[in-house]
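Let us walk through a complete example step by step. Step one is to write down the protein sequence. Step two is to encode the small molecule, zinc ion, as a SMILES string so that its atoms and bonds are unambiguous. Step three, shown after the inputs, is the structure prediction itself.
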Amino acid sequence: MKAAVWHGQRDVRIENIPEPPAPGEGEVKLQVGWCGICGTDLHEYAAGPIFTQVNQPHPLSGRLAPLTPGHEFAGTVVEVGAGVTGFKVGDRVSPNPLLRCGTCAYCRQGLPHLCTQIGFMGCHSDGGFGEFVNVNVERGSRPIPVLYKLPDNVSLEAGAMVEPLAVGVHATKRGHLQDGETVVVVGAGPIGICTIQAARAAGASQIIVLETAAGRRHFAEESGATTVIDPTSTDAARAVQDLTNGLGVDCAFECVGAEPTLRAALSTLRKDGRAVVVGIFEHPAAADYFDIVFFEKTIIGTFAYRDEFDLVIEMLADGRLQPEPMVTGKIGLDDLVAGGFEELLTNKEGNVKILVAPE
Ligand SMILES: [Zn+2]
Ligand SMILES: [Zn+2]
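Step three: the predicted structure of the complex.
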């Protein structure tokens, strides 16, 4: 079958590799419909290995590079292994790509994303940039499933967006975002856009987005931002106060991962407000702790997702989440490097999510 294979930095090849064997006990074989390119895939391509295991096999999958990347995908069940109930050939599904042990303290608490042996399909086992992949229906002893069915009115394209949208929905849950609250989102990259969508779905009364790039401000507006501010030309904290009766917002989401944007998020909060940090930081960052203490502000970290796939699929089915404006490109697997990775590296502003059909 045709698949992308990560061999090293700037060395992802489209190859003919053996199709996965017949699915084992508790597994199904999927024919991948669409797989989205994530920032993580891009980093592994441009600057990797970052998460990809190159020296030692991952303890849960037993795999190391070279392997097939891609963790944001949806597909159709083509073969069902022994002991699988609840799935049949022809079902359209989206898998949760988290690898978890199922037995550590965190897995037993229902926190698989904090598993002591955490891994991801596409990084620590073969992922969705290939025609076929075998997936466990459940993983570990705890009943957080891996495979989720898509209802008839949720397309495979939308199914490939469940994973990044789950990151946004998990962030709003971590922030205890309530119906009618006011929100700031700092950074309208792919995860910022997913967070805007999730905030809109949660019933935020105002979603004020801070974004320096004009192209991304446009995608923010299309995804539900009520006001979009360019913080390089406007005093963002002042503008947010003006929009919120002089108070500041209830909840701010930092979706960049840098000190200035963390400070910006904190500066837009009302007293007793919550800052949810979604961005991945490459360096330690300082914040104004006088402000945090004196005004009882809270900083909350959020990572990936816990068990939000069901909720995201329900929200896609009833229209609360609308991924269409986020899909800025659809390409075939042969075009993954030039039309996918390189396009995203050179035209960041013009893209949110590029979907790849592995045929
Ligand atoms: Zn991702
Ligand atoms: Zn675990």
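Step four is interpretation. The longest strand covers residues 27-36.
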